[in-house]
Predict the structure.
Amino acid sequence: MLRLKQNILGTAAFAVLAVAFGCSGPANSDRPTDTTSQPAKATSTADRSDAGKILDKWPNRPVLAARQMMAQYGEPQEVTSEKLVWHNEGPYKRIVVTKLEIPHDFPKPHMDYLAHTIDYRAPADKASALVDFDGSVIVDRTAGEMTARCDLEGHNILTLNLAHDIVTGKTDAAQARKSFGEYVVQDALGNYPKYVTALQFQPMASPADPGSPIIPGSPKRAVDGAVGTSGTDNADGEVLGFVGAVDENEILAAAEVAKKKVGSEVKDYATMLHKAHGQHLADTMKLGQKIGVSPVETADVDKLRVKGAGNLASLISLDDDKFERGYLDAMVKGHTEVIEMIDNQLLKTAKNPELQAHLKATRDAVTMHLEQAKKLQSDSQR
């Protein structure tokens, strides 16, 4: 009889605490679950022992969230000292548990360390309302993502559902805040509101919004990279894209030289290249406007940018002396390759006479830059 009374009192005490603090537990055998969004366990790229070793050094609350997510979705695909990450589990694009706990007082004081991200395009005119609703709603319009960050998966589901209601005009920020608190209390009472147990909408397909260029003469992104085969304008647009990519690769490299302790002649050379290619980039965009052709970012143009990034990345970690030598070697090699590209590809592809003249002038300037780089390279080897 005494044990029964203690159990009854303990249960009642928990119910009071649940209502008072608005706590909501993870899914369990009594909680209804959305079977349509339950994922198969993902093949893990992280070793279980790696996650375990990391969690041994984490605070208890993030550890609890991590264990809950591992029980629900399997081992994380990414494990670092600061976070665990799952990709494409259930309806979520990404789930992240962090070691860092961020204080958050809505709807009651707690810590944020668990985030659920979905594919979603939130209109710009709804951004303010979403922030007013919950400061832990994170919208990435460019990537087409919406993230809810809290301490419990159920609360993140609730946040995403109410955020969707705001976007669709079903509710406003003030009412959503009120509803959030009411749903949390109902969940703590064991009523399992559907807004807490499962998303009430489908994440969007292809929600990314890359925006639009605003700089006059800026390139446009090719559709499926398929440019250069359907007309003169498209072919000339790709040529302009290549020229712009060369300029921007040179500008990025010159900017890194300015951060290093290199010889004054090399620094002056890089400064000259920065200004010359910056002006040439502006001239190229103006030419495109004049002849009515926009530079086009095709897959091949992007490969040139990627190549430039890789070459520069290999230099940045070098000490100043090795960086200087590596930079000069890269300038000799790079300018030689640009001349070959102009001769063997761009001049043969370009159709517009003014663009052809621009390429010939570009070749002359690049040749001059190459000779200067060769001289500096030779001087540095003495």
Q: What stands out?
A: The longest strand covers residues 92-104.
